[in-house]
Structure prediction request, 383 residues.
Amino acid sequence: MSWAEARLLAHGAARPLTARTVPLRDAAGLALADGLATLQPLPGFDTAAMDGYAVSGTGPWRIRAAVRAGAPWAGVLGPAECVEISTGAGVPAGARAVLPLESALTTADGRVSGPVPPPGRHIRRTGEDAPAGRRLAPAGTRIGPALLGLAAACGHDSLRVRPRPRVGVLVTGDELEHTGVPGPGRVRDALGPLLPALVAELGGETEGVRHVPDGPAGASGSGLSGAVRAVRGADVVVVTGSTSVGATDQLRRLLEAAGARMVVDTVACRPGHPMLLAELAPDRWVVGLPGNPYAALVAARTLLGPLIAALSGRTLDPLPCVPVHGRARPAPGATRLVPVAWDGARARITEGHGAAFLRGPPWATRSPRSPRTGPTAVRRPCS
Ligand SMILES: Nc1nc2c(c(=O)[nH]1)N[C@H]1C(S)=C(S)[C@@H](COP(=O)(O)OP(=O)(O)OC[C@H]3O[C@@H](n4cnc5c(N)ncnc54)[C@H](O)[C@@H]3O)O[C@H]1N2
Ligand code: MOO
Prediction:
């Protein structure tokens, strides 16, 4: 299976989690379950955009009232009349424009004079940004700070969202140490710390990280199969370091014995090819990541990212197609996955990306511009 196909299959495998309604303060980072429509026109009334005078006809203008933000004035301006007005206040009926304070003079008889502003000057018209009912974001949009502000501006107190998929992490490997500098033949666990942060970045929530011995399940139910059963309440169980064909690599045997449905079983990419995705029971997913840390990272981006996006009701972003420079070993018949840092419109391969090493990946950066807004010559989506 090609790398591109594996990504799409992982995204296509799962249906979105059941939607729930949450207050705005709890919605950051989640995905909209429904489109976001505005409950009122934006802005909701003709609004002064400058401190000054809302004037009618030509001057000099007689001042009828002082209008402040939040306290509308119900009168109607006639010719040569004005109100003193604050930025953000409602512009009264009959006003043609706002004359800024800096352009206005007061005459000896207390009237206002100044250049006649063109119609509509410094007035934000009702619904100028969006009429009431307009859909401003589709279902599946990830809710960032600006979208929260927009939702509030539209009059919403809560949003229907998809909850964060819950991910249980099982780290296997009898050679692993979880603190300090490992002794001879021992290895420091890099994935226990890496995965919760990656899961959060991908839009999920880690239920817990458990360390599981390599040995098969004994009568006590210990071992990987017992550990997978013990992860309750998670939508996805991620297992690291048990994907190969060695004596201690039990994940495929365990899945087969449990009657799991394999969705992705080995991918034509380097590193990370032993990765897998299986449905253990309806709506319960297992992602197998290779033990080599960089291989695990790319495998998680290949399968876990799209799976979490699907469970969250989000679409998969198209991949940008850009010129890349730097050294990468070709992988005949497979996709070579390398960390890249953006270097203007090009991507530079960061050194130190062997399957077992994490020296290069921390320097990888996301695209500085969306593939949809960048110059098309260098950012056509890859097929
Ligand atoms: N006969 C074959 N052997 C291997 C093949 C193969 O096709 N045939 N594939 C190799 C590739 S590629 C990979 S990747 C690994 C995948 O193996 P596992 O997923 O079973 O992982 P392990 O064997 O347990 O570990 C591999 C390597 O990674 C280190 N490791 C494991 N977990 C961690 C961790 N949490 N933090 C840091 N390092 C970790 C472990 O010590 C090993 O060095 O299989 C190859 N073999
Ligand atoms: O392909 Mo393995 O996944 O070399 O680390």
Observations:
- The domain at 47-124 is CATH 2.170.190.11 (Molybdopterin biosynthesis moeA protein; domain 3).
- The radius of gyration is 30 Å.
